[in-house]
Design a protein that fits this description.
- This protein is an alpha+beta fold.
- Helix content is about 50%, strand content about 25%.
- It contains two helices and three strands, in the order ααβββ.
- The protein has helices spanning about 5-50, 55-70, and strands at about 75-85, 90-95, 105-115.
- A hairpin with an 8-residue loop joins strand 2 (about 90-95) and strand 3 (about 105-115).
- The longest helix is centred in the first third of the chain and has 46 residues, at about 5-50.
Length: about 120
């Protein structure tokens, strides 16, 4: 019988790192999907706050930041918030996602748009 102990070690040196990178990539995709849902939901939450006629930018920013803090578990950082107002409101939220892979920074952006709420007396 031949001794193949060195061959098994060589296989392990090649296969194990590839397998670990694949597992990390799958986990990173899951973190990215969760972060995108948080960013999208925070834009919707910001729209809800911004659609009130008396809303201010600090109120919208506080609402979005609190939403991200409470739902992301620290996986998402708010990097930019843009609120465009008028008769129609657009809230754009940009954030950075946690990355478990080195040298890879993931930035996500989502927008939500809607009308400003107008209250009219009944006729």
């Amino acid at each position: 019988m031949e001794d193949q102990g060195g061959f098994a070690t060589a296989e392990a040196v090649i296969i194990v790192p590839i397998f670990m990178i694949l597992i990390f990539l799958i986990v990173q995709i899951g973190i990215f999907a969760h972060a995108y849902e948080v960013i999208q939901a925070s834009a919707s939450d910001g729209l809800e706050t911004a659609s009130v006629p008396s809303a201010s930018y600090p109120a919208v920013k506080t609402s979005v930041a609190e939403f991200i803090k409470n739902t992301s578990g620290g996986d998402v950082q708010l990097t930019r918030l843009n609120v465009q107002t008028g008769d129609y409101v657009t809230v754009t939220v940009t954030g950075r996602c946690l990355s478990i892979l080195p040298f890879w920074s993931l930035t996500l952006s989502a927008s939500a748009s809607g009308d400003v709420q107008r209250f009219r007396a009944s006729e």
